[in-house]
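Annual report, structural modelling task.

Input specification for the 2-phosphoglycolic acid complex:
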Amino acid sequence: MRTHLVAGNWKMHTHPKEGLALVQEILSGLGKAESEVWVFPPATHLSLLAEPLAQSPVKLGAQNAASAAQGAYTGELSVSMLKACGAQGLLIGHSERRQLFGETGKVLNQKLERCLEEDLTPFLCVGETLEERESGNHMEVVRHQIEEATEGFDGEALQTLVIAYEPVWAIGTGQTASPFQAQEMHAFIRRVWAKKFGESAAEKIRILYGGSVKPENAAELFGQTDIDGGLIGGASLKAADFLQIVQANPHYDL
Ligand code: PGA
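The model returned the following structure:
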């Protein structure tokens, strides 16, 4: 069975001390988490949060990294630097990176390579815009994003990879994909994975849903067959909301 996973993407919110208070609140309310829980704070917080989180079940990730391993790239942070500060995973290809910073499939492919070289868990984010959905192209768009990002890798190298399906029109808008729309895309992603990497890899890969997940809608989304958890933006900044979403694990009582 796939372990249910809930991750908080803090984006460019909180100062380091506020981030520390937020993880302390999360840790004190977490209890016996039946899910795998991750937080993705700004990179400036990693070193500070690594210590309290090291003794906890909550894992720490970075939101972005350079596509190069090192060199003259003013302002960039390499995967190995982020790892040295405590990151265990990396978000790759969040739609804000694709749209606002022009990240292409080729660059994301390089970031994935850096991430695997350093043994970090990659969280590959994919998702269509509203226009792409309305034109009926959404499945092909997502298939293409997966193929571009994973080109040249085999299933074995990608064993730890997690996919986050985040329809762009649902991110930060309050508009969530319906459980039916989300399940349909997740099942499609699993079929794409099966075709590329085989049935057994597709059975194992975790596919998260992201886009306006809240305590009120989490249980219904997470109850879908191919939804293995969520990538949470806005609602991950309030410990109480995030914890309620973590607890909306459909396998909790099994
Ligand atoms: P949201 O963001 O939950 O605020 O919609 C999700 C994300 O961008 O990862």
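Residues 179-197 form the longest helix (19 residues).
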